[in-house]
């Protein structure tokens, strides 16, 4: 499963872990991805979204209907 937010498009970033002696090792910065289940009243069903923590806050702010509209506008499947 890709670590990608369906709403914000947030995905892993890449960089280096730098030790005290300044040696570098490659690492991956994963977003805080959660699976959330929402009731979509307009369709009379539950939907399950893969969202980052920021995406969950965005759904709380704009509502699930507007969030689903944004996901579908981006070409995402709900």
UniProtKB/TrEMBL annotation:
Gene: rpmB
Example GO biological process: translation
Family assignment from sequence similarity: Belongs to the bacterial ribosomal protein bL28 family.
Listed SUPFAM superfamilies: L28p-like
Pfam families: Ribosomal_L28
NCBIfam families named in the record: L28
Region named Disordered: 1-26
Keywords tagged on the record: Ribonucleoprotein, Ribosomal protein
Domain of life: Bacteria
Record HAMAP family: Ribosomal_bL28 (MF_00373)
GO CC, alphabetical: ribonucleoprotein complex; ribosome
Protein's UniProt name: Large ribosomal subunit protein bL28
GO molecular function term, any single one: structural constituent of ribosome
